[in-house]
Amino acid sequence: MIQPFDFQLPTRISWRMPVSEALPDAVADLDSRRVMIVTDPGIVGTGLIDRIDNALTGAGCTTSTFTDVGSNPTTRHVASAREMAQDTNADVIVAVGGGSPIDTAKAAAMLVANGGEYSDYQWDGRPITQQSHPLITVPTTAGTGSEISKVAVISDESEPFKKGVLSPLMYARVAILDPEVTIGLPSGLTAATGIDAFIHALEAFTGKRTSPITDMLAIESLRLCWQHLPIATTTGSDIEARSQMMLAALYGGMAMDQSGLGLVHALSGGVCSRLHLHHGLANAALLPTVFEFNVGHISAERRHTLSRIVGLPSDAPDEALVVSMTEFVRLLGLPTDLSEHRESLDADVIDSIAEESMRMVMVHNNPRLVETSDCRSLIAAMA
Ligand SMILES: [Fe+2]
Questions:
Q1: SS3 of 167, please?
Q2: 57 Cα: distance to centroid of ligand 1 (angstroms)
Q3: Most CB atoms closer than 10 Å: which of 10, 155, 265, 376?
Q4: In terms of domains, do 346 and 250 share one?
């Protein structure tokens, strides 16, 4: 029987190449002219921001560009971005980049409309009551799904633990998808961001809040990642693989946004902050052990679906499915455990990661009941 569900995605999704030509129209559609671009120095270095800036100024817009975004953005980055948006009287914010610039822009857009500081809203603090300032997202990686999600994940300056703030009032107005901008993404980042998309789909598909719509999106995302991520990783110039991965990330993000995540993401916040790892890299390292922990608690029907996606017979044993997932991570050149970080994972660090993970709402969506001692044992087993 189909359980009650909602599916809400107000963001317009525009597939356009090149994005620089599409942006002036998207800005005009929002009756905007003063644009603040939020990006990072790496993206500026590719020349993309110059092309976007030229197209916008050529269309009569005024622009300002904010580039002070860290790889793990903090409340300080968000406060600075919000300040620039207000100082320049920007009537639209355009986020160009991976998850970090997009989440920074999304958090700043929320603060422009709602006031206060980002930390006021963390841990179910101050409620978000106003729709965010207009935001357009342009993802330059195929992974985070942040371009269409209602969450912004930002760390505190004083505490490295990442905590998301989410609200249906935080969706971007428009997401413009141009797979050509991912062509230059290095192999390692392609793999790390791509496996993040895969895990969004996997956790949405195996969690407790599934729906027929998110199942459809998650299954297609998993299938596309399985088929195209290895090619995008080894042959970055393959526009077909890049296009399919951009769709996979979109579908995975939509599934995640509506149906939630699970234990990989619950653990990865603490792992990333303690070990200073990239989000996708940490997720890759966590996947094999967490999937093995969960697999027996995923329904037979869903395990059969997963088996078919990874090229196994429907009734393949759980162990074979775990091996396939692990080999997929290895094939992408990503770590399959945390053994490289054994030195940093003493008992105190493992305890703090376990405790932080249990504060995440995602643990409650995991197919298997999780306790602090499970988190501790899983991290210890990976080290
Ligand atoms: Fe993720």
A1: coil
A2: 34
A3: 265
A4: yes
